[in-house]
Amino acid sequence: MPTHHKTYHPYISPFDPCPPIAVKSYSTPPNLYLGFQPPNLPQFSPREALKKGTLWKVFYDPYYSPYERAKEGSDS
């Protein structure tokens, strides 16, 4: 199962004047993993689709920054 949040390790120069960020992350949209749109996908109501930005539930992906995910984990 592919994950929507990926990480990578950028090159860190010994001459970089700023403190390096050792691990960077990014989010990939769910439509990359679907391939094609099958018929009869579940849909949001029109009002909710306007809020979510898509009509089909499988294409909805709420974006969370890595810092928001870290806060969620520390609350529990």
Blueprint (SSEs and pairs):
Elements: E1 5-8, E2 24-27, H1 46-52, H2 66-75
Antiparallel strand pairs: 1-2
Terminal CA distance reads 26 Å
- The total count of helices amounts to 2
Overall tally of structural domains: 1
Order of helices and strands: EEHH
* Largest sheet, strands/sense/barrel: 2 strands, antiparallel
DSSP strand tally:
2
Q: What is the typical, i.e. mean, pLDDT? A: 82
Overall shape: it is elongated
Binned, the helix content reads: 10-25%
Strand content: 5-15%
Pfam family, one: CotJA
General description of the model:
This protein is an alpha+beta fold and 76 residues long. It has one domain (5-75). It has 2 helices and 2 strands. Strands 1-2 form a two-stranded antiparallel ribbon. It starts with a strand and ends with a helix. The mean pLDDT is 82.
In short:
This protein has 76 residues and is of the alpha+beta class. The protein is built from 2 helices and 2 strands, in the order ββαα.
Characteristic key phrases:
single chain, 76 residues, alpha+beta, two-stranded antiparallel ribbon, 2 helices, 22% helix, Spore_coat_CotJA
